[in-house]
Amino acid sequence: MKIRSFDEAGAARLIVDNPPVNALSLSKGVVASLTDALRTALDDPAITHVTIEGAGGRFSAGADILDFELPPEQIEPTRELFALVAGAGKPVIALITGEAFGGGLELALACHARLCTADARLGLPEINLGLLPGSGGTQRTPRLIGVAAALDLMLTGKPVTGAEALSLGLVDEIQAVERLRSAADAMARKGVPTRAPRADAVQREELRLTLHKHARLLGRSVAARQIGVCVEAALDVPLYEGLQLESRLFHELMASSQSRALRYAFFSERAVARLPGLEQVTARPVASVGIVGGGTMGSGIAAAALEAGFRVTLTDTNADMRVRAETVISGIFDRDAAKGRITPQQAQERQSRLTMAEGYEAFGEVDLVIEAVFEDMAVKQAVLRSLEDVVRPDCILASNTSTLDLDILAAATADPARVIGLHFFSPAHIMRLLEIVRGRVSAPDVVATALAFAKRLRKVPVVSGVCDGFIGNRMFEEMLRQAYQLLEEGALPAQVDGALERFGMAMGPLKVMDLAGQDIGHKIRQRRMAEHPDRPYSIVPDILCELGRLGQKTKAGFYDYPNGRNAVASDAVNDMIRSVSAQRGIDRRAICDEEIVERCIFALINEGAKIVEEGIAARPLDVDMVWLNGYGFPRDRGGPMFYADELGLTYILARIRSFEKLSEGWAWKPASLLVTLADAGRALRSLDTAARISV
Ligand code: 3HC
Known about the structure:
This protein is of the alpha/beta class.
């Protein structure tokens, strides 16, 4: 039963009951049942008005995204329902609690009035799926609250609270949850409010200014541009014509590659936590967390865990570090409070769950300990061994290592099955990605607990097997190899980074290394060159280190940073790169953006496929979620694996084979998985399980 209904005080109460989020599903019959229930109420002379609400304290998260796979003609019933609501001869009033998102809010907008609780959340997040609000949102929202506020809602996709919605004019009244129905009855008796139309000339100027404000987004997002077109139409044409235009553009967007990629990202971010093989495994309960090390990582992890409601005990043998960590953590919460993200009381409550301690004895009762000490095998092994002496036998021991072999680390303990890697990315309380490194003998319930813990931190957890660099850094290494190579062949840093940023990467790889610190890259290269002397690196980044150009922290790396953060091309570095080419006898040539993008991105794709083939990542979608959430890969391209499928594996393979003929061709050995899939005419996506969607 997806719609429950009963009559009360002359009102028909219609309740959408489609857990977990009350999506207005076509395939599950929600739209049809709601239409039937509404028709019955409208035909019943004893009913004076209708209220619509959502079960479980949630109005509706909108259209069922899984329905987007249906052929367009099967989406007709939604239009019928919305027309019935808007044209009803009796007042139809939406009672909003929890979320009213997308089609859920559009349903409320089609109603004659809206009442909501102060903490409800209302939004039109379709842009996050590469779509526009397709059930009247682009037409009714500007008519109700004006073009500027409507565009802000639709272009940012960010929700507003009930209280904010009232001041925007999106809802008519705020009420306590238990008063919603009676207030709606009173409103129906009095007559629902009407609004005066807005002055046209002001609206046009607001449209121009707001589109200008969002110019960068409009340059990239097809959906954003179409939202602009629809909102402009709302000023020019009658509602029914605007609705027709909106519907046509919605269907066009649905077929766009940006929307396919964004929908894939939405479901994949949820599918990553459903790792095949762990379906029947129960996670251990975690209420308290121990952290070893009060450095940047330890403090950030502590802040993330406190924010998620855990009790946290942080130890550092160094008293100064303990003071520093406590100050850093309270600073994070104070800033959140100052920005209005949380109340001062919430900040205080979070801080009150933190205990600082000197030694490990404080960990006697914790459920999980994460070590975030110096990145050195012997140091970390000693920490894990000491922890074993004090923690409970069922306490999970996690390492935040980013480079060390977890199996060797775990082997130092008496019970390696309870050891796992939790590779947080800096700043740990902000970055969404968490690589969970599963050792050869990590127990399945330890992995399941790590996944559940990560979900509570609101991270995107991706399970990686043990290998050098895990999923993310191992792939980044191959991108960097190409970037350095391109410098020697004829490109300059600003061109390499610029081409990749225009492709959509949040930051070019050379700027990333300037941010991370060139000395870190140097250390990793030294180790890898000792391990694989047959795989030489460009000497360009090493010369930077010799020159003391360690990146942003020394205000000089591949670029100059005269005011700290903004990269400015450096003539000295560009000359150095030219002289390296000359020394190596390379005739520098003009290199186009397309070659830069193909070599850097296809290197990622090839390595990602090897990672899937070796079982380091369970599925291609796991690789993609690492890159979307930790490495700034453009979300509207889905991730390297999704992008490979979009271009076609046959094409990718042909290009990889042509790169094999380059001077460092050994780096381009094609992944056998790519060869097998391309030969069979299959896509990487065909290997995704538990993804719930096939875009
Ligand atoms: N359709 C189908 N499934 C949905 C859904 C939707 N609109 N929204 C959420 N779900 C599913 C999720 O995939 C997840 O499934 P799983 O448990 O099998 O992985 C489950 O519901 C719970 O979702 P979350 O894990 O995200 O739960 P949270 O409580 O953290 O968040 C939420 C709930 C805030 C509603 C969040 O899910 C959300 O933001 N959903 C997307 C809302 C959205 O984008 N709506 C617009 C849809 S497009 C539209 O309406 C078009 C219209 O204009 C025509």
